[in-house]
Amino acid sequence: xxxxxxxxxxxxxVALGETLIMVSVAGIISTILGLILGVILVVTKxxxxxxxxxxxxxxxKIINIFRSxxxxxxxxxxxxxxxxxxxxxxxxxxxxxxxIFGSTPFVARQIEGALSNVDRGVIEAAYGMGxxxxxxxxxxxxxxxxxxxxxxxxITTVSxxxxxxxxxxxxxxxxxxxxxxxxxxxxxxxxxxxxxxxLVILITSIQWAGExxxxxxxx
Length: 219
What we know:
Blueprint: H1 3-7, H2 9-43, H3 53-68, H4 71-77, H5 79-86, H6 91-116, H7 120-128, H8 133-144, H9 146-168, H10 174-184, H11 189-218
Helix pairs in contact: 2-3, 2-6, 2-9, 2-10, 3-6, 5-6, 6-9, 7-8, 9-10, 9-11, 10-11
């Protein structure tokens, strides 16, 4: 029943490794960039501690543009950019650039939402005690919003797994590429089913680990 899976098990494990690398690298980079952008959006908004409505408006529009583009279209649109940065548009390297571009705006908006929920009174109290804007960002905004930030990153990681599978359908490597190349194109149903099961296990494991971490932080 799983003859094809057994036959191509080596390729499957390579594809799994590629997916984990894609999600990890893109997740780390998009988290750093998204965190920076999210903080900028919050502190530069009207009434923010570093108010700059011009910068806020421009940055917000750029983020909205990238968020509104379906990932499969973004993959194609970023081909010149991807080739410029990594020298190829296929395989593991070719998938990283669009994954980062696709997930960073999402992270930025998630972080913005988390930081915006911090009690305004706490911020004003810190400001009244003489804290600098950078101290407020680190000691108040980021610390107070930590549980919501972690939850946002869990959602982002899950989304990245889905994005990586889409990238695989156009030669980006990983489990999506494995499922299309060895399963769909050759009508090997067992490979398709096992790939789906692996993706479900990955997503479930990440959500479980994230929820455990959230409980520890909240308590």
